[in-house]
Amino acid sequence: MARINLKNLAHAYLPAPTSETDYALRKMDHVWEDGRAYALLGPSGCGKTTLLNIISGLVQPSEGQVLFDGKDVSALPPQARNIAQVFQFPVIYDTMSVFDNLAFPLRNRKQPEAEIRTRVEEVAEMLELKDELHKRAANLSADAKQKISLGRGLVRNDVAAILFDEPLTVIDPHLKLLLRRKLKQIHARFNLTMVYVTHDQLEALTFADQVVVMNEGQVMQIGTPQDLFENPQHTFVGYFIGSPGMNFLPCQMHKGVASVGPQLIPVGHGTDQLHGHFELGIRPEFLKLHPNQTPGTHRVEIDEVEELGNCKIVRVLLDGQGLKVKLTEEQEVPAEHGFLEFPPAWIRLYADSILVRSTDESQRCKGPHHE
Ligand code: ATP
């Protein structure tokens, strides 16, 4: 498995790009560590597939280099890069048996038949394909065919990286959950370098140890799911990650207190020096909604309650500005108005959309999703 270095990498499909918007990928410099699972996550058209195809060699970058373990592979075609790639739709040989499909990448490399059998059986076991090994691939369901595609990607243990381009799109929702867990187990067991493209945040957050959040051809943040949730470096990440996304309120800072209209919200340690205009960000999970006024709470109108089965989302209005609060199913929602608390440890401040300060480490508490 390889460490992947993207060095001054940028890509424009246009022959003579003049402005930043002409680039499908804007200049980036990253090192992705050997043996880790990365998910490329972002909205449609943000450049995920372009980046994956540059790593695999299907697209040659117009600027910069791709290094595998320090070796420049930018000019090499996919076959010479020693990677496995799994696409959105099954790529299998219908006329062959499931066993022969899985064995194909190994037979191509002239591995001994006994080793091939062991490895194919191991992969078939992991993907729950053991009972199908001798069936013809043509007769199988779309789900099973995609499992074979995944298996073909996973069967070689000598590849630099395995690249997945939205591989679970055609899979039914129940099996999707199962396969996501399987891929994570396989990653933990074999320490493979995996890069996984998806626009589904749940998929990215459950699969990857590092999530690469992209927007408009740029990498906005690379971090663990916990980093992205607790400390979004950019308002885009705050909004894009989470369901619903982070709340943002324009505010004026003065001596550690944020003024949101007439409301004064203490932000906590380390903000005394900040003056002027910022955006206050807080996740719906961290806001507290009380039925009665207590010191430090702010009166809000209850605008809308959305019941989601295991939780409820309450939209409240603070002096006319909408905010979302996430409550557990058991928590009561006040009828017309309630009192909102902004725990300072969970307030983040943004200037020009960039995080200016994470609240002091000592103030951090565990979020509800880690309890
Ligand atoms: P999706 O989730 O919809 O697949 P994506 O994040 O993978 O999107 P890309 O497919 O990498 O995004 O596309 C990034 C940008 O590059 C888009 O503006 C797209 O229109 C453009 N693009 C992609 N492929 C080509 C191509 N072959 N020629 C010209 N422009 C392209």
Q: What does the largest sheet look like?
A: 6 strands, mixed
Assembly category? single chain
Average pLDDT figure = 92
The fraction of residues assigned to DSSP E strands is 25-35%
Tell me the number of helical segments per DSSP (H or I, 4 or more residues long). Answer: 8
Alpha-carbon distance between the termini? 34 Å
Topology:
Layout: E1 4-11, E2 25-32, E3 37-41, H1 48-56, E4 63-68, E5 71-72, E6 83-86, H2 98-108, H3 113-126, H4 142-154, E7 161-165, H5 173-190, E8 194-198, H6 201-207, E9 210-215, E10 218-223, H7 225-230, H8 235-240, E11 247-254, E12 257-260, E13 263-266, E14 276-282, E15 288-290, E16 298-307, E17 311-318, E18 321-328, E19 337-341, E20 348-351, E21 354-357
Parallel strand pairs: 3-8, 3-9, 6-7, 7-8
Antiparallel strand pairs: 1-2, 1-4, 4-5, 9-10, 11-12, 11-14, 12-13, 14-20, 15-19, 16-17, 16-19, 17-18, 20-21
Helix pairs in contact: 2-3, 2-4
Bound molecules: adenosine-5'-triphosphate (ATP).
Features:
OB fold (Dihydrolipoamide Acetyltransferase, E2P); six-stranded antiparallel sheet; Rossmann fold; disordered C terminus; single chain; alpha+beta
